[in-house]
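Re-run with default settings, no changes from the original entry. Doing this only to confirm the output is reproducible before filing.
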Amino acid sequence: MAESIPAWLPALAPLAVFTALLYLPGGAALWLMGLRPAVALGYAPLLTTAYVGVVTAVCAALGLPFGAIPFAAGAAALVAVVAGIRLVRGRGRLRLARPRRVRWPWVLGALALNALVVGVAYVRHIPSAEAPVYQYDTIWHLTVIRWFLESGDYSSLDAGLVDGTAGGHFYPAAWHALVALTSELSGASIPAAVHGSLLALVLIAWPTAIAWLTRTLFGPSRVQWAAAAGLSFLPAVFPIGFLGYGVLYSNLFGYVLLPAALIAVVAMLRAVSGKASRMPLPALTAVVVAVPIAFVFAQPNTAFTLIVLALPFAVLTLDRLLCRAVARRGRGWLRPAGHAAFAAVFATAWVVIHDSPFLDRTTAVNWAGGAPSTDAAGEWFAFADLTKPQWLLLAFVLAGIVIAVRYGPSRWWLVSAAIGCLLYVVAAAGTATSSQSLRNYLVGFWYTDPRRLAATAAILLVPYLALAVATGVWALVRAWRRRSGPSRSPRTVAAYRRWGTAAAASVMMATLAFDATIGGLALGTRAAHIAEAAAATDAQWYSPAEAAFVSKAEGIVGHHRVANDPFDGSAMAYSLGDLDVYFTALPGNWMGTQTADQRLIRERLKDVATAPEVCEAAERAGIRYALVLHDGDRGVFQNGPHQFPGLAIADDTPGFELAAADGPLRLYAVTACA
C-alpha cells in the first residue's frame, strides 16, 4: 500500500476542495440560523447540494457561465441574507449556538480506522489518482464533467446536451457540478478530481452521516458513534459496491445524503406530532425544503429510497395524530379511516409518479435478476449481493437487532429494514417473478436493479452493527468492573473504565475490520473487480497505447470534429484528451433518442463516397476525420452485433484517406465531402 501513496498525492488537493465546497456554504448558512456547528455541518451537504442545483439552473437560464466565482458569489449572498435576517430579528445582535464538547480521540480514531479500511480495500487497488475505473457509466460521468468545464453550463437541466441526442436533457448532475468546480479550483485533472471527491465522500461524509443516524436512532454514545463511523466501509454492497459497479457515482452521492435527510424527516414528523424540536424552526424548514431539491439534482431515485425508509415513522406519527383526534372527538372510525385514506393517497401518488413521462427513462428499464426469494433475503442481510456473505458482520447485525427490539428505542427502524429487504427480494427475483408489471411498479424507481437496492442494507443495518459493538464493549467493561472490586480509588476506576472502553472498542472494531478486509472474501471480490477495471494495460478498454495515439491525433485534427465508435474506447478521448469526438457517450447513457444525422453516421458513414445524404449529415456535424481504435467488441461494454457499423472503416474504404496509423489504430481524413 505504501507504494500507492505517491501516486495518489494528486487527489489530496481535490479532496480538500471538494470537502470545503460540500460543507462550507450550507454549514455556514445553517449555523447562522441557530444550529450548533456539528449539527449544521451534518445537514450542510443537503443544503449545499440544493443550492448547487438551483444556482446552476438559474445561471443557465440567464445565459451566464457558471464556475468558481458565481458559486462563491451566490454562497456569500446566501450567507449574507441569512445573517441579515438574524440580525433584524435579533435587533442588531447575532446569537450563534456554541459548539458542544467533541470527544476528538474517538472521532479521529474512528475516521482513521475507516481510512485504513478504505486504503486497504479500495485505494491500493487503483494504480493512481489519474487512473479511471473503466466501467460502462464511467464514460458518461467524465464526459458530463468535461462538458461542464468546457461549456460553462453546469445545469442538470442541460447536462444531456453533451450527447447530442434529441429529447430530454435532464440528468441529475449536482455531484458532477461539484467535481467540475473542484477541478477548476484545484487545477487537478478530471480523474484526480473524481477520485478526490470520492475520497471525501467515503472518508468524511459517509462515516459521519451514518454515525449521526446511529446516534439519532439509538441515543448518544461515543462507542456507537465510533463503531458506525469506523466500520462504515465494511459492507460490500455500499459504498464500495457503487465504486466498482456501474459506476454509480450519482447514486453514491445521493445515498451519502440519505442519513441526514432521514434525520431531518424524523425531526419534521416529530414537530408535526407536537413534540418539541431542538432545531430552530427556520433551520428545520430550510433543511426540509432542501431535501427534495437536493435529491432531484443528486439522484431522484434516492428520494424514493428516503420515502420508503421513512414510511414506518410517518405511519407511526399519523397513528399518534389519529389517536388524539379519536380521544378529542370520540369517533373511533377516524383511526382506520385515516390510515386507509393515507394508504390510498400514497399508492395513487406512487403509481402516478411512476407513470410520469419525466421518469420514463428510469422506470422503463427491466433489469435481469433470477435469485430465489429466500436466497435474496439472506443476501441482503449478509451484504452479499454479487459477493460472498459477510458472516461476522451478519452475526453482529442480528445481535444488534435483538438488542434494539428488546431494550432500545426506534423499533420502527426494523420495519424500514424489512421494507428495504422486501424491495431487494422483488428486484433480485427478476424474470422469475410472476408479475413483471407489479415488479416494475414496486422497484422501477431503482431501474429494477438489485444492486441499487442492496445498498440500502448498509444504511439500514450499520446502525445495528454499531449498537451490537457498543453493547459488547459495555458488557466487557462492566465485567471488568465487577472483577476489579471496591479496593481501587474512584479516580483509578474512572481512568481504567475510560481506557478499558477505548481498548475494548478498538479490539472489537479492529477484529471486524480485519475480518472484512484481509480475511473476508466479499470486499476482496469487490477490490479485485476494481483493480481489473482500473489497470493500465493493453487489454484495458482505453489502453495506454490508444491514449497515446489519441494524443498524436489531436495534433493532426486540431479543432475539427472526429467521427468515432464510442465502444472502441474513443469516447474517452473527449473527457481524458482534447479530441472533439462525435459520440461522447455509449448509447445506454444517451438522455434522448438519436437524431437522423446521428443514425446516418452511426450506420452508414463508411458509405460517404456513394451516399450524398451521409455526406450532408457529416457536413452538418462538422466531421472531418474518423477515428478507429479497434473492433469495438472489447470487454464488457458491448455484447452482440457491432452497434456502429458505419465506423467499420478500412484503409481501402472509398472517401477516406489514412492520416495516421499505429498498428491497428487508425485516423482517417474524410475526403469524399471535401
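The chain has a mean pLDDT of 86. The chain is about 65% helix and 5% strand.
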